[in-house]
Amino acid sequence: MTLDFKRILITGGAGFIGSHVVDHFCAVFPASEIIVLDKMTYAADFRHIEGPLGQGRVQLIVGDICDYNLCRGLVANCELVIHCAAESHVDRSFHSSVLFTQTNVLGTHTMMEACRTAGVPRIIHVSTDEVYGEVLTGTCDEDCSLNPTNPYSASKAAAEMVVNGYTHSFKLPVIMLRANNVYGVRQFPEKLIPRCCLSLARGDKIPLHGDGRNERHYLAAQDLAVALEILARRGVIHEVYNVGSMEHYANSEIARLICDAFGKSFDENVVFIPDRPFNDRRYAISWDKISSLGWAPQRRLAQDIPQVAAWYRENADRLYKLMKRTDSL
After folding, report:
1. DSSP readout, 26-44?
2. Across residues 192-199, what is the average pLDDT?
3. Which of 134, 151, 302, 311 has the smallest count of CB within 10 Å of its CB?
4. Among 183, 181, 141, which Cα is nearest to 291's?
5. What are the distances in angstroms from CA 164 to CA 63, 106, 118, 160, 278?
6. pTM surpassing 0.85?
7. Contact call for residues 17 and 83 (beta carbons, < 8 A)
8. Beta bridge partners of 34
9. Are the C-beta atoms of 242 and 140 separated by less than 8 Å?
10. For 209, phi and psi rounded to 5 degrees?
11. Catalytic annotation on 132?
12. Nearest residue to 310 (alpha-carbon basis) of 143, 145, 198, 164
């Protein structure tokens, strides 16, 4: 089944992942009215979607997903809601955990209730592979138990429980997506790749947690946006879909790639710092289900790093000032 949509709402659309989704959906649904709801917190930026805004392709509403009346008004007559908005930085969740619960759980609950009362026919909830917890060997498919290990992943797992309650009690037409770590330009430099890039662009050393051996799989933001399009068109309601890649790197390997992109020595430009209170060694998922719909990752991290590094080099001064204002340094 292939679907087109007259009116689409994307929450968190001025953030990192959301802005890539906006770009892609504007391209593949040229006749659709696209609305972005974003609180415009530290990780969002008008510049992320200035192209679609300037072209009149997107209407930006600045507001909170915890505001039921606002959400209820925006989802009216929407044929598709993509719920990307979230607090997502694990380090920040250790000292601001209540905020993560408020945004990720209450915000999701508010959005699901608004969609229920408005009768939205198709909703995609964007979650994370981190809800499975640490996976030391093998991979997790969509039927594996959730075992979150930090305040961030716990809040995302709790949000999934809210969604599950709505699908069972009200048959709310939700599709769930659990994605690997996402990389690309526009990501706020508190995450590993942009933080490494910004550090070198500013002439500082890269800080790596622990021994740098923690491993993650990396998915390009553009590949995630394509996955969302496929789920919007052909995904099965009430199903969960893992979305991942074979691009797995230890943190130290990521730092080495970025040092190479900047023409700098790894040994001279990396410093190891105390680890998080708990830091999962490895996440790994299988994504056969969405592959059966015709999706596969197209981009390679090692090939994209030079372009990503160049973007952070060009925007280093602006991002550094923003990080200082948000106490992220």
Report:
1. HHH-TTSEEEEEE---TT-
2. 95
3. 302
4. 141
5. 25, 14, 18, 6, 28
6. yes
7. no
8. 8, 58
9. yes
10. -65, 140
11. no
12. 198
For residues 190 and 89, the answer to whether their CB atoms sit within 8 Å is: yes
- Runs of H (alpha helix) within the chain: 16-28, 50-54, 68-75, 90-95, 97-100, 107-118, 151-170, 192-201, 221-234, 251-262, 266-269, 288-291, 301-314, 316-325
DSSP per-residue letters across 98-159: HHHIIIIIIHHHHHHHHHHHHT-S-EEEEEEGGGG----SS-B-TTSPP---SHHHHHHHHH
Asked whether the predicted pLDDT for residue 246 surpasses 60, the reply is: yes
Tell me the pLDDT tens digit for each residue of 256-289.
999 999 999 999 999 999 876 766 778 889 999 9
Set 23, 64, 87, 130: catalytic member: 130
pLDDT in tens, 76-116: 999 999 999 999 877 778 888 999 999 999 999 999 999 99
From residue 316, give the alpha-carbon distance in Å to each of 14, 111, 275, 321.
19, 35, 25, 9
Burial classification of residue 31, based on how many CB atoms lie within 10 Å of its CB (0-12 exposed, 13-18 middle, 19 or more buried):
exposed
Average pLDDT on 18-41 reads: 97
Please confirm, yes or no, whether 268 is among the known catalytic residues. Answer: no
pLDDT mean over 117-140: 95
Note if 320 is an active site residue.
no
* Choice among 79-83, 121-125, 210-214 with the minimum mean pLDDT: 210-214
CA pseudo-torsion sign 198, 262, 16, 128: negative
Catalytic residue among 132, 152, 166, 312: 152
